[in-house]
Every structure is written in C-alpha cells, then in structure tokens.
Amino acid sequence: xxxxxxxxxxxxxxKRQSVAFWCNPISGHATLYWYQQILGQGPKLLIxxxxxxxxxxxxLPKDRxxxxxxxxxxxxxxxxxxxxxxxxxxxxxxxxxxxxxTDTQYFGPGTRLTVL
Amino acid sequence: xxxxxxxxxxxxxxxxxxxxxxxxxxxxxxPYLFWYVQYPNRGLQFLLKYITxxxxxxxxxxxxxxxxxxxxxxxxxKPSALVSDSALYFCAVHNTDKLIFGTGTxxxxxx
Lengths: 116, 111
Hints:
By secondary structure, chain A is an all-beta fold. Chain A has strands at 5-7, 10-13, 19-24, 31-37, 44-50, 53-56, 65-68, 75-79, 88-95, 106-107, 111-115. The model of chain A has no long low-confidence stretch (mean pLDDT 92). Chain B is an all-beta fold. Helices cover 0% and strands 55% of the residues of chain B.
C-alpha cells in the first residue's frame, strides 16, 4: 500500500514570494491534515479536511495561508506571501476518517521550506 | 486545555539496555494517546496508541507503552535498545478535535 506522497521535498524561496505544496493521501482515506513543524517543536495542525470539506482551520493564518482539497483526494497548501517565520517542515497526513478520536494518522515525508 | 509534556529533550542509552521515553498528559475526559517516531528527513511514523483496555500497549519495532491513569503518564519503553532506534520520538494526545503533539525527545542509542 502506497503511503502519503508529498512534493516537493525541499523548497527555498525569498520572503514575500509565494509557494505551494502538494499532498496525495493514502487511497481511501477520507481525512487529510496539514501540519507545520518548526525546528525543535512538535507538529502543529494547520487544517483538517474530511473529504473535500474543512473540519478545522482554526490555526491556519488565513491572511497568507490557503488550502484546498478538490474532489476529496489530493490537496494543496499555499503560502502567499511567505515570511521568514514560515520556514518549517510542512507535513501532510491522512486517516481513514471512521473515528474522530481514535483514527491513526499516517504522515508523508514532508516538505522542508526555507524562506530567505 | 489539552496538552502533553515530554520532560526530556534527549535520552541516551547504550545498545542492549532498556530504554524509557517519558510522556505525561493533561486532558479532560478520556485520553487517546499516541507515540510517533521521526527519522531524519522523514515524516512521522506511527508506533502505537492507547484507546481503551489493557494499560500495556504493544507497538511496532518492539516498542511498548504503559498507560498510567493515576500518574497521567504514557511512557514509551523497549526492553533492549538498538542503535537503529536512534530518532526523534513524539508523544501525542487526541482529545476533542485535534491531535496535540509534545515537543519531542531525541533518543540516542550508543553502540
């Protein structure tokens, strides 16, 4: 079974530029998550989708971050414009979506973003 | 507010010795607890979870964790450490609507 796929693996941009990350979840997983992991910290949830609807985006900086999950499968996360403090690893995860509390989340390899 | 704490930034252990990585939690209601491992330049890999039932949970790669309600702890253990176990370990709690991660503990196993 293929895991969660993410691209690109690495991205370096100048501040104020825009960037987009792509995620393809495990086949059949209804729930998709985007996390931000700053160096030395645990991952922090940015947004959670159930199929193509947003369940939780309370920690997404909506003035610069946006995400979509068209057709309820793959997803893109965009930052526009980027700031220095956005430098982090962006992790995508997916889960079956059968249980809100006990589902295991499976993570992709992440995209390491460096903003100069 | 729900939270988890990993009191040790780093744990050092000799290969072959038992290891423990500590985690304590603070939640209202029933805790659903998880351990993940992160190898360099890779995403998090699921190790094990506690939902209900037996307090001793067995997971991948020989790891296990003990849920202790009175001490609000969920320590990760392994009877005999391997050099290949060296990685970053995250404890997480799922309560209400999201998974909340600790800050991580770096495990270093020396040959």
